Amino acid sequence: MRIAVLKETREGETRVALVPELVGRLTALGYAVAVEPGAGVGALHADEEYAAAGAVVDADAVEGAEVVVSVQPPPIDVVRRLAPGTSTISFLPSLQETGLVADLRDSGVTAYAMELVPRISRAQAMDALSSQALVAGYRCAIVAAGLLRRFFPLNMTAAGTVPPAEVVVLGAGVAGLQAIATSKRLGAVVKAYDVRAASAEEIRSMGAQAIDLGLEALEGAGGYAREMTEERATRQRELLTPYVAAADALITTAAVPGRQAPVLVTREMVEQMRPGSVVVDLAAESGGNVEGSVPGQVVRIGAAQVWGGSGVPAQMPGPASRLYAQNVVNLVALMTRAGEGEQPPAFAPDFADEIIAGACVTHEGVVRHEPTRTALE
Ligand code: NAD
């Protein structure tokens, strides 16, 4: 049983799907681990570390591999080298990458998408959306603190008192809660808003103030947010305006699964912020929660600096890779049948398991993820 770790090739991707520390968990399951040279460089892991941990560093790592793991979807030239029946495990935004999905299907590859791992309790250890959102949320708070030319915490000194910064977080899912926790640890006064019914309690549990706009909760399937009507969006923006205007730092992390990010903050709202204030829009890449934010850039709107997130987890490649690798190894472990007596261990995913079935995009020449299959028809 050979498992190959790809060197990421997409621009800006610094993470790696397996860190040296976790090679031993795969070898203990019975796998031979082959790593493409330089795979860990972006996350500061040298080839020698992988070799010392028991992996082979091999430019032809994918040759003869039963499983190929990566962070970004496997490149088309790699897919075309894979034998039918090979499995790939990676992020795979299948609705956006239908061409690649068609290639995976036609190559007879079984492709699993980490973002499709069902978000049920049993799958928490494999939930890469959560692990990467945690990294992103932390990074957003640190970026805000770094851009803001003032203290986050209250400082009482002999020379006088400097008040703390006020941070407003919009969207309090995994990333937002981590941004709240990090801002609180740095001493800021934090207020936050989310449309889900459970979120006020979650915000308060982080020691922040839950903003109550007096609007109905917007909850859809699986405890996720529902899309707003235009009328509701306008009312929500009106009610949030004074909170945004009073913030020294605004951090936005709101998303609705399968949709463009909702616009929570207009350009006019940002223009009301004080000189020196900072906006961090984690959702910039998926359309932006803040009108005018640009992924990967800091732009000026009114008197505020607006930072647009782009590949944010990859900005902290060490911890992001480590957490992602844990998620991948836990999924591989679920797909592995332990050896018994004469029977050796085997990579044997059980499609009766809702985690495995849910994460599978292509298998035996068929697109199993229904929305993607429909998109391809
Ligand atoms: P997400 O990244 O899809 O969205 C981020 C947040 O934006 C969500 O909290 C959402 O409610 C919020 N949002 C959407 N539209 C908004 C709007 N118009 N105004 C303000 N906020 C808005 O979500 P996520 O962080 O991946 O998680 C969302 C939910 O899933 C949470 O309830 C979380 O606890 C739950 N979850 C469960 C599991 C599990 O059980 N295994 C794992 C992870 C997350």
From TrEMBL:
Catalytic activity: NAD(+) + NADPH + H(+)(in) = NADH + NADP(+) + H(+)(out)
Pfam families given in the database record: AlaDh_PNT_C, AlaDh_PNT_N
Molecular function GO labels: oxidoreductase activity
All copies of domain Alanine dehydrogenase/pyridine nucleotide transhydrogenase N-terminal, residue ranges: 4-136
Organism placement in taxonomy: Bacteria, Bacillati, Actinomycetota, Actinomycetes, Propionibacteriales
Gene3D superfamilies given in the database record: NAD(P)-binding Rossmann-like Domain
Protein source organism: Nocardioides massiliensis
Protein name as it appears in the record: proton-translocating NAD(P)(+) transhydrogenase
Keywords of this entry: NAD, NADP, Nucleotide-binding, Oxidoreductase, Translocase
PANTHER family reported for this sequence: NAD(P) TRANSHYDROGENASE (PTHR10160), PROTON-TRANSLOCATING NAD(P)(+) TRANSHYDROGENASE (PTHR10160:SF19)
InterPro entries membership: AlaDH/PNT_N, AlaDH/PNT_NAD(H)-bd, NAD(P)-bd_dom_sf
Entry EC no(s): 7.1.1.1
EC class of the enzyme, as a word: translocase
Function: The transhydrogenation between NADH and NADP is coupled to respiration and ATP hydrolysis and functions as a proton pump across the membrane.
